[in-house]
Design a protein that fits this description.
Layout lengths: L1 H11 L2 H14 L3 H18 L2 H11 L12 E7 L4 E2 L9 E2 L4 H11 L3 E7 L15 H11 L7 E4 L5 H11 L8 E7 L3 H10 L3 E7 L10 H5 L3 H23 L3
Parallel strand pairs: 1-4, 1-6, 4-5, 6-7
Antiparallel strand pairs: 2-3
Helix pairs in contact: 2-3, 4-10, 7-8
């Protein structure tokens, strides 16, 4: 029930939904004052949330800062959280298409090859909700195959395919790695934006966590004048992702999940 409700909330929190609602209000309102305010609100949302400079700054404030492991630092387990690492293949071929968060599995491979982690657990399952939300991918298994193809030994890769959200990632990972709870640090690997919520969820179920953020989206790169003033649908989408993540953290705290 919580999973289905969380996806409905995700939908409501999308700025593009606010824009559609405001345009609908503007179209149907009898009052010119209300129509004007609705249109001004649309303009405000589009201008603010599609601004590259502002969105970058918001990400750099919220994202967990990247780290480098010391020369002699190593861990038995690296736990990789699924979500967006590969894209579903609908052309009938056996090709695996990498997704926007592919850094989540690329960095663990590098850590494994340099001896920083000895075993990898990939956690994430199917996220379908009946006909409401369809997930036809097999991300966890696909990522395992990619890791093997890139040199990770099959015996060192473990998969968990039931988790549908961050809380379940933590719960099911804890069930698989019971003897490591409260005894040895695990290296938690997920997107920098997703890391604050992930740390709290994994600590909640008893893990000692060392965070290893990847897939960092925020940037302090200097921008030209055109970049500062040009609206971008790409950054509007980025804003949506950040709003959903922050809302998810707040909801999880309210529910006692982290």
């Amino acid at each position: 029930m919580f999973f289905a409700l969380s996806k409905i909330i995700d939908f409501i929190l999308l700025p593009i939904c606010w824009i559609f609602i405001l345009l609908l209000i503007s179209y149907s309102a009898k009052s010119q004052k209300i129509r004007n305010r609705s249109l001004l609100s649309v303009l405000f949302i589009l201008t603010l949330f599609s601004n590259r400079w502002l969105v970058n700054r918001l990400y750099t404030i919220y994202e967990q800062a990247p780290i480098s492991l010391s020369k002699n630092e190593s861990y038995t387990w690296g736990i990789v959280l699924g979500g967006g690492m590969v894209r579903p293949n609908d052309d009938g071929s056996d090709k695996i298409n990498v997704g926007e968060t592919a850094d989540r599995f690329i960095q663990p491979i590098l850590l494994y090859k340099t001896g920083k982690i000895k075993k990898i657990l990939i956690t994430g399952g199917n996220t379908s909700i009946g006909k409401i939300k369809l997930d036809k991918g097999h991300e966890t298994n696909d990522v395992k195959q990619l890791m093997i193809a890139m040199g990770v030994k099959p015996k060192d890769i473990y998969i968990e395919t039931k988790a549908r959200n961050t809380r379940e990632n933590a719960i099911y990972s804890a069930q698989l790695l019971k003897k490591y709870l409260n005894t040895e640090e695990i290296l938690l690997i997920t997107s920098a934006m997703h890391m604050p919520r992930s740390i709290l969820c994994f600590e909640k179920v008893g893990f000692k966590v060392k965070a290893y953020p990847v897939d960092k989206k925020g940037s302090f790169n200097e921008l030209g004048i055109i970049d500062l003033i040009t609206p971008s649908d790409y950054y509007l989408a980025r804003t949506s992702q950040l709003i959903r993540e922050i809302s998810g953290l707040l909801i999880y705290k309210a529910m006692g999940y982290c």
